[in-house]
Write a structure and sequence with these properties.
Helices cover 35% and strands 27% of the residues. By secondary structure, the chain is an alpha/beta fold. The chain has a single domain, classed as P-loop containing nucleotide triphosphate hydrolases (Rossmann fold, 3-Layer(aba) Sandwich), CATH 3.40.50.300. The strands form 2 sheets. Strands 6-7-8-3-9-10 form a 6-stranded mixed beta sheet. Helix 3 runs parallel beside helix 5 and helix 5 packs parallel to helix 6. It is globular.
């Protein structure tokens, strides 16, 4: 599903080049739930933005479903995001002047397509927001806003869901609700999920955990590995 080959990313600060990613190699299988953890500045969010086509690497290749992403134009990458990738942001990024319903269908309408009201109703039920269709973002709690953001990311049934700190602004109970929701969609829709987080509680939902440090992958563990629980305990301490 996703192939990352020797990817680097540098940003310019004045005349200096600041390396963020330093030759990352990573394969993610179809239907896999992968969590990327690591300290701030380690490069994990940068990698997620590259996977979503929000930016392009300085060097290396990123393939989504066999298609090279970094060689495509900005317009082509935008279309891929609208049609094949769902993106959930930590700060929700809902449009304040639109209702819950309008926020959810916005990506479909932006692509010049129509969506069945029944489909939206089904999604609202799945994220436990039925009856909130006409409310505006400021009338919702943080957890409710994040559920709207997830519904918006899923409205076009993307094959890949990218989540950047989706529980970062929520308390533990609401975080658990959001993670349960993502896990449910992952199970029912067989979606490939890549989630970035600082929270090892959230990481425990993943099939595979990847530790980023200083722009490289330092370690990784799969759920079926014998040292999975030990890995979680080590970083929760």
């Amino acid at each position: 599903m996703i192939e990352i080959s020797n990817v680097t990313k540098e940003y310019k600060t004045g005349n200096e080049k600041v390396p963020i990613l330093k030759g990352v190699d990573l394969s993610i299988s179809e239907g896999e739930f992968v969590c990327i953890i690591g300290p701030s500045g380690s490069g994990k969010t940068t990698l997620l933005h590259l996977l979503g086509g929000l930016d392009i690497p300085t060097s290396g290749n990123i393939q989504l479903q066999g298609s090279e992403l970094s060689s495509k134009s900005e317009k082509q990458r935008t279309l891929i995001r609208r049609r094949e990738i769902g993106f959930v942001f930590q700060n929700y990024q809902l449009l304040p002047t639109l209702t819950v319903y309008e926020n959810i269908v916005f990506p479909i309408h932006a692509d010049g397509k129509k969506v069945s009201p029944k489909e939206v109703e089904t999604l609202l039920e799945a994220v436990d927001l039925k009856g909130y269709e006409k409310r505006f973002p400021h009338e919702l709690s943080g957890g409710q806003q994040q559920r709207v953001a997830i519904a918006r990311a899923l409205i076009h049934n993307p094959k890949i869901l990218l989540a950047d700190e989706p529980t970062g602004n929520l308390d533990r109970q609401r975080s658990g609700d959001i993670l349960d929701l993502l896990a449910t969609f992952h199970y029912k829709r067989k979606q490939t999920i890549v989630m970035v987080t600082h929270d090892m509680f959230a990481a425990g939902y993943a099939d595979r955990i990847i530790l980023f440090k200083d722009g490289v992958i330092e370690a990784e563990v799969k759920r079926e590995d014998d040292d999975y629980a030990k890995f979680l305990t080590r970083f929760m301490a």
